[in-house]
């Protein structure tokens, strides 16, 4: 009922709008894009498009004064007096005549510095004036690709027929175009609610736009703005530590208020800083406009070349408030010779500044989409859209929308599938994919020569996987089903092993999912698998170090999980396991052929005859809960999308029980808890922490498999983005326990705060990591590690490496070493 009332009110408002439209050019007839257009002393506003065309909806046309505001040009205020419902008003803007009023720039008494100091001193007052509001919001976003090559690194680029049809013969075209209409409520510092009334995606009448107000709220009155890293505002409290300022000119707006155009220049190139211009109103020292560039390497995003953010503010003389009426975010990016560009336009209008909000206004729901938000017709959009479409955008909508019906037809999808589903003789070896797009299912055969699965360990020797999988999905209902089998063969132990898996997701609202698996496989003693197959293969074949210790597991298990409340997910599992010890069957390696591998017994690496445990079986049950405090979410008709609130930690609680074992001694209970938290230090970096604790009960004689094993690392190779779940130099099974335990991992990343200030080293564009790791268990000396290193290392745009110096200490034994982080290895397992 609430949505119906809102839509009815919106249509009533549209029907009572009058419209002023036209083209804005300079005095030579060149169109001016993104000119702010608004009605004086109201909050009806819009901007012109790339071709200078605009359309402004006002309540009525009588004696309106329409303001045209554009940086570098004189602001024009034009009175409109007509009873017509729609009028055309073309405007020519004259370039601004800037002046400095003969001010002499004295390095010791820089007038720009005085203005910025006043802006900093007054920013709380100016920010508070717009600290609580509702507004209408419109956005239009577009991604384009330019000069897409036929091949990248020798490999043919295949975008698929649907995507390829968007590009012309030069590999240029629009990849994504969308629009959003919404109603926004905001109360600083962090209360926000957005209701999406209309959403349109070119070529997808079931799609939902992602360019929302929630993801585009950039406030320069804040000390930092979030662009992957915390960027320093030119009027931050500590801005003078990062910027130099120059008063380039002054001019007067249509309200006869003096505007100061100040050039913003970084003091150090590699800092998270902007550069460009900020326009400050004299006397009130409010922001008049923003025109700032962000270089990609300054926000640790090497693929982005440059991003530009423009904002314009309009003044209401009745309440003396400067409010943002328009924002434009554009960027250029590239990789492998492919150039991308994006442009997002935002219009804020019809502000209201209530004294307070109802207590129910704000909650954990950040964004809500009306049920039929993506089903508005062209008449609706043509009436309400504040920024006219360009010829290119209109053409893209017309082309993709007309092709949509064809592309979703059974005849079309079957023809595309038939082309891609052709079976070739070598597919028996290399693998084969089959897809039925119309009926929404697919089949995959991995091939007999699934080289990506090839690995080596001393139990199986070289081993290879193959298998089959089937998937069926329904995006509208959020359902998906997957069934798969994996067959593994070890060439040294000459044994086939096979497992089967299935999963079914019921919806995208509470993410109710059931999944299960069963079969036979080799498993690591530590179920978290701290050493990957790839790293173990390299370590064994090249250095004769077989750190991976395996046992044979025959099992069947079933799991069920879902969100049971906002931010709370509960998962349960029950399964049967039969465990058998395994022994080395090969001594093969590429090098060090005279050396001997350690045994497959993690408790006795020099004992090649005694197994680590006796064969046995048991049942195990596990219940785990994940709690995200303050969890926020976006509600869409096709699902709910959660966003962790960074102000709060994530907590995991678990209870595990082993029962009905072949012998009573293998049965036990265990409780566990962990707390993960990232403490944001603004532009000074982030401190990540991970605390874990647990306790076993009735576990004096349980199998070593069921001990609590900790993620060690003896390879000196790191594979994760962050080291908040690993001890960098601890042997894999040296501290395993069947008693209580407490482990702590902490890591401070300066995000460039320190490294950006060190001469020469700042050329690396890297970040510094300082870490501390500790483990405490009964009857053993505590283990601790201190680390310091550099992250974000690499070549050109590829920052895939990390190097850390590690010092460890336990019971008087100290070790020192270096861990080389190769984050690209995440994709190889």
TrEMBL record:
InterPro entries named in the record: CarboxyPept-like_regulatory, DUF5686
Domain of life where this protein originates: Bacteria
Protein name, UniProt field: DUF5686 and carboxypeptidase regulatory-like domain-containing protein
Swiss-Prot/TrEMBL keywords: Signal
UniProt cross-references to Pfam families, sorted A to Z: CarbopepD_reg_2, DUF5686
Signal peptide: 1-18
